[in-house]
Design brief:
Oligomer: single chain
CATH architecture of the largest domain: Up-down Bundle
Distance between the termini: 57 Å
Strand content: 5-15%
Strand order of the largest sheet: 1-2-3-4-5
Shape: globular
């Protein structure tokens, strides 16, 4: 229907506007979209703008972002007038105008662009490209804030639909699951089937009506009889299957955000909570819900820490033992691996419980995700992943986060309000001198 409206609108535009105006630049088209009143012509203009934008190369695309920052920023004249009106007569009407005037013009531009067929997906893609540009252009951050503001409403939990992914799911969606998987690569269709088809495996994804058959985020689940400490048995081609009726633990071993353009739009914790509910309903015997999570930046942090003579995480003895990590095959020799084990686990405990970024939050993004969702740091898994990538990124370390249904809300509040890291005693004991933000619990 939208496509039909856009086609009719384009015909109206072509009849009413001279050829010179039809060939106007992208910025002029955006101005025309903002000033227009007709819905049909607006849909056509929005489609035309997004089509032209999609054809831009990097240079012109950056110029377009710059125009969004300047030309489509705040209307100061309108803001001044609205402030004056509010001060003269503080009524509901003047408050409404002040609120509308305070918005940058690009917010309304994005809303109108969203009218085009496929507009939401195009805007998500636009923000993905904006994020790439922001690696070198901090001055574009205001545009990104506006995208997050809009997407937080458009991708509200109320619009999201949880669907189980199994072998009967459409091939188009299954192909995207293979493509998007970012934690443990899916090698081929047989590998995918091993992850979603057996009775002791589950996969769930969130979808949005505006992104038909394109998942936003998905989680892969293994039903197990105990908390796993390594990923290889879960991903093994040949393994012993677990009768779901005898499983006691649901392990979230891969959680993948599919749309980079939606980074910062939080719906991951909704996914986990709803998956917990779904698994509890399907397999009532399951009582433990844990993750088996990677530590993708631990090795990088440890490398920097080893060069710091004043490191609080490492002493000279630890630093000497960890020198063995410079040999890529250190883990293959039992004697060397055992000499590294204790100092590496102590370093990891410090990393997760004390290392902070500039905002006072844990430096590890995976930790921020799970702690923010109410999980507790349950266990550090020595050599949990010996794949080449994991050894390079984390020296093989993996982590279990526990989702205890009785404490999720309390843990979430402690983290959100005070940045508290709730951890099991088995982890907190590894840190040499406890500090206030470490909250040990029994475990």
């Amino acid at each position: 229907m939208l496509q039909s409206i856009a086609d009719r609108g384009r015909s109206l535009i072509q009849r009413r506007e001279p050829a010179r105006e039809r060939s106007a630049g992208l910025i002029e088209l955006c101005e025309a979209l903002l000033s227009g009143r007709g819905e049909a012509s607006g849909v056509a203009l929005a489609r035309d703008i997004l089509t032209r934008y999609a054809a831009l190369t990097i240079g012109p695309r950056i110029a377009f972002f710059e125009a969004l920052e300047t030309t489509f920023g705040h209307d100061r004249t309108r803001i001044d007038a609205a402030i004056a009106a509010w001060r003269a007569s503080p009524t509901a009407e003047t408050a409404t105008e002040l609120n509308a005037a305070s918005e940058p013009r690009r917010l309304e531009l994005f809303r109108r662009l969203n009218l085009a067929p496929g507009g939401t997906a195009a805007l998500v893609r636009m923000r993905e490209q904006l994020l790439a540009a922001m690696d070198h252009r901090d001055d574009l951050a205001a545009i990104d804030s506006d995208f997050v503001h809009l997407f937080s409403s458009w991708f509200n939990r109320g619009f999201l639909v949880l669907r189980r992914i199994d072998w009967s799911t459409s091939a188009a969606i299954l192909d995207k699951i293979i493509h998007y998987e970012a934690v443990h690569q899916i090698r081929d269709w047989d590998d995918l089937r091993r992850r979603i088809d057996p009775p002791d495996r589950r996969c769930y994804a969130f979808f949005h009506p505006a992104l038909v058959d394109d998942p936003l985020i998905f989680v892969e689940v293994a039903l197990t009889r105990e908390v796993p400490g390594a990923i290889a048995p879960i991903l093994a081609d040949k393994r012993d299957h677990v009768d779901p009726e005898r499983a006691t633990t649901a392990t979230f071993y891969s959680i993948t955000n599919c749309q980079r353009g939606l980074n910062g739009v939080s719906f991951g914790h909704f996914l986990i909570k709803q998956v917990v509910e779904e698994v509890s309903r399907e397999v009532p015997r399951v009582s433990s819900f844990v993750t088996l999570s990677p530590a993708p930046h631990f090795a990088q942090w440890l490398k920097r820490e080893r060069t710091q003579e004043a490191s609080l995480a490492l002493d000279d003895e630890d630093r000497a033992a960890l020198a063995a990590l410079d040999n890529p095959d250190w883990w293959r020799t039992p004697e060397i691996a055992e000499s590294v084990r204790e100092p590496l686990l102590r370093s990891a405990a410090w990393y997760y419980m004390r290392a902070r970024n500039g905002r006072g939050l844990p430096v590890d993004a995976v930790a921020r995700f799970h702690l923010g969702n109410g999980a507790r740091l349950e266990r550090l898994d020595w050599l949990g992943d010996t794949s080449e990538r994991a050894l390079a990124q984390s020296h093989g370390l993996m982590v279990n986060y526990l989702y205890d249904l009785d404490y999720i809300e309390r843990n979430h509040e402690a983290y959100a309000q005070q940045h508290v890291v709730v951890a099991a005693n088995s982890v907190s004991r590894l840190v040499r001198s406890p500090v206030r933000e470490i909250v040990p619990v029994s475990g």
